[in-house]
Amino acid sequence: MLLQFKAINFQSIKEEAILSMVPSSDKSHPENLAHMGKRDALKSAAIYGANAAGKSAVIRAFVAAIMAVRTSDTRNITQKIPGMVPFKFAEETVKGPCSFEFYFVTQNGVPYRYGFTADADHVHEEYLYYYASARPSRVFERTGEKFMYNQTDEGAFSKYEEKNTPNKLFLATATNWGNTKTAPAYQWLANAIDVYNPELAMQPTALQAFEQDEQGELKQFTLSLLRQADINIDDIQVDITPLGNQTKEIVFTDPAGNPVPQGQVKAVHIHAGHYVQSQSGEGSQFFLDLNEESLGTKQLFWLSPILKEVFGKGKTMVIDELDRSLHPFLVQFLVELFHTPEINQTNAQLIFTTHDTTLLSLDTFRRDQIYFVEKDPHTAATELYSLDEFSVRKNENIEKGYLLGRYGAIPYLRPEGGL
After folding, report:
1. Is the pLDDT of residue 255 over 50?
2. Which domain holds residue 175?
């Protein structure tokens, strides 16, 4: 369960940007809070802002930090740390390192705070603390290649130092060599939080899930999701077949342009069944290729395996442009899934960017669940802030106030003359 994420000097983020999932003193919508151990957290957070203001930079900061951890152990000494892109519009930052910090609660109910500062070539700082009480307890601290531990742990940790390299994160190295004190934090970053881009990242994940759905549980979940979303589909047929030797003359690439090994190339056929009635009242079922369905239907289809896993395992889901190709009512429906205790029984969380202003209502969100990003017109730096920083009446029309510019984070349009 995520409590807070912080990024500094990353892409358009120059100064410290904090996304806090720790609830404020606001007493509204108690159903929007998750509980684990002695900690509470928001079940969702929505991020608004103008185009090019930095919403996606916040999401990419999650990606960069998470992937730096997940790819650390496989990185050889000559490889770059992926995603370390500093703020490029200031001399004091363009050659500086990026900084990230996660504050979270693992499945055992213990809060951890993990952070690192790195450029593409090496890690400058890294630290891990846990909270057995209100005060943090150090697991390790690192400055360059100098490490500090509790005196009782020094013998257990020091043997991992020689296995680490300047471009690797010690959290990953220690865990992969069997250290049990770093393992809970590493496993949370490796398995309990995922970031999705509606255009690319969902499809491979979804296809793998459908391929492994031998009991049909995912199929039933997907049909239920589509039915509740008022989409007339009553059956799904998914056929995934390895192409094998038929592909020997063809070179396939993934979305990043990397060659796909021959054994991983598969033919995918997905059809959706529609039950319709004729004018005489006779019912028949017709199947359409998924590519013939609307963009919104396809979006929900690809989302369904991810949602099933998120709710099943209590994961934190971060997604850019949740509202892409979806009707505002469907976006509202997805958000409410996370807020509904009968559905979200595992403290799953949703963090998303959107332009859908119909969601901006205190009937749906608490004040501390709504975030805005705004880019400084002079420095080009992104600022992230919450609606909770404003004096907002309980009955205030948040959507109207936002569109009027009361909270900032809207484009300043000034058409003048010809184009």
Report:
1. no
2. 2-192+314-403
